[in-house]
């Protein structure tokens, strides 16, 4: 597995252009957001690519990339035949750039079955560069991407999805709306929190997650309200570290429940994850007799103590139960939906339907074992009434 080169700061994009020139790439495909590419300043700074390469840009895909979007992208890939793909934007453009690498050469009719088969993508013949313009998804640091077939979400993974280079310039994140900064930043906080308690966590991933929380929690409110270069640096580095952590540990129950909340109630992804995160913090601190088989209790309790400490330093909480309350209050201060009731959940049957969207057998990465009925209880406590 080749290592990823990381370029940081105001000249990070210049370094990418220099590398593309040095490697003599003659055809480049830019996969970008529809309006954010120009607004954040990346377009002007990557224009130099056109001095030595034929550059084509593509941004015509949904925020949640679908198999139909992917087919259109693969047609463009075949037509332009780039040596280099550059994903510039939030999680969706970067995921789409990864998906193009993953399914390069797969026939149009075979794409859907290849996604469903879920075989690891170990190699790509295209070179991939990634440029995050939001602080949240951490997609530039992970070896997986998400694609939808209808309403069903699939994860595509493998070392072939890792970029050859990443440009991390906090200045690119300053142009987004306050709402975008809030929901993306909250997603990074949720990833770091879940990574600390995940069954798949390692000492290394937990170090990244702890560092991420230490950067993200104190910075997110000023970054949303009145962003400065300093808070942008904290959020950019924090979200990147959260991505590195989740790349190893993977997500847990709060993320699993979020997809149904987003689909049914239109709540943005990061916000949707955070709606149940506080209840899971409370549960995971006390339900130590319901840990997954083989999970070390002492290790889990250390992780939970670190989570409570990180939130305590930033938000003034003193125990796991107060972390849940403070997360809801933080969401409100950030202008986000703070409870499931505010999201539009009104009945017990809706809670049952949301819980049923999660296959509990696939929650083996969550430290505490939950039945579907117990997930309903988590959702009920997240109503906020």
TrEMBL record:
Reading the lineage from the top rank, the first entry is Bacteria
Which Gene3D superfamilies does this UniProt record tie to the protein?
3.40.50.1970, Dehydroquinate synthase-like - alpha domain
Q: Does the keyword Cell division apply?
A: no
Keyword annotations from UniProtKB, A to Z: Oxidoreductase
Tell me the GO BP annotations in alphabetical order: antibiotic biosynthetic process
Record flagged with keyword Signal: no
- Database matches in InterPro entries: ADH_Fe/GldA, ADH_Fe_C, Alcohol_dehydrogenase_Fe, PhpC
- Which stretches make up the Alcohol dehydrogenase iron-type/glycerol dehydrogenase GldA domain? 6-170
Q: Which is a Pfam family this sequence falls into? A: ADH_Fe_C
Q: Which PANTHER family match?
A: ALCOHOL DEHYDROGENASE (PTHR11496), DEHYDROGENASE, PUTATIVE-RELATED (PTHR11496:SF103)
Name the UniProt record assigns to this protein: Alcohol dehydrogenase class IV
- Species classification: Bacteria, Bacillati, Actinomycetota, Acidimicrobiia, Acidimicrobiales
């Amino acid at each position: 597995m080749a290592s990823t080169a990381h370029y940081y700061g105001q000249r990070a994009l210049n370094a990418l252009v220099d590398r593309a020139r040095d490697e003599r790439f003659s055809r480049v495909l830019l996969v970008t957001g529809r309006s954010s590419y120009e607004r954040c300043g990346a377009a002007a700074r990557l224009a130099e690519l056109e001095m030595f390469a034929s550059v084509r840009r593509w941004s015509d895909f949904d925020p949640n990339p679908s198999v139909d979007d992917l087919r259109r992208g693969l047609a463009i890939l075949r037509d332009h035949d780039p040596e280099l793909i550059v994903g510039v934007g939030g999680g969706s453009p970067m995921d789409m750039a990864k998906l193009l690498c993953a399914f390069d050469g797969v026939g149009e009719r075979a794409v859907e079955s290849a996604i469903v088969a879920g075989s690891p993508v170990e190699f790509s013949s295209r070179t991939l560069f990634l440029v995050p313009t939001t602080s949240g998804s951490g997609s530039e640091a992970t070896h997986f991407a998400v694609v939808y077939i209808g309403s069903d979400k699939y994860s595509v993974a493998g070392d072939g999805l890792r970029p050859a280079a990443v440009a991390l310039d906090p200045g690119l994140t300053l142009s987004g709306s306050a709402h975008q900064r809030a929901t993306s930043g909250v997603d990074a906080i949720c990833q770091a929190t879940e990574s600390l308690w995940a069954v798949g966590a390692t000492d290394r991933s937990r170090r990244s997650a702890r560092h991420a929380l230490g950067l993200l929690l104190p910075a997110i409110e000023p970054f949303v309200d009145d962003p400065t270069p300093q808070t942008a640096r904290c959020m950019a580095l924090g979200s990147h570290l959260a991505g590195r952590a989740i790349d190893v540990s993977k997500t847990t129950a709060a993320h699993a429940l979020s997809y149904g909340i987003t689909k049914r109630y239109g709540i943005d992804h990061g916000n949707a994850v955070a709606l149940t995160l506080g209840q899971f913090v409370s549960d995971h601190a006390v339900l130590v007799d319901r840990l997954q088989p083989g999970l070390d209790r002492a290790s889990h309790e250390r992780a939970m103590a670190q989570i409570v400490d990180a939130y305590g330093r930033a938000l003034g909480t003193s125990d796991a139960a107060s972390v849940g309350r403070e997360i809801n209050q933080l969401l409100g201060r950030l202008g986000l939906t703070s409870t499931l009731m505010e999201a539009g959940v009104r009945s017990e049957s809706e809670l049952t339907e949301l819980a049923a969207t999660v296959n509990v057998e696939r929650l083996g990465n969550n430290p505490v074992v939950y039945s579907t009925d117990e997930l309903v209880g988590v959702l009920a406590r997240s109503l906020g009434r």
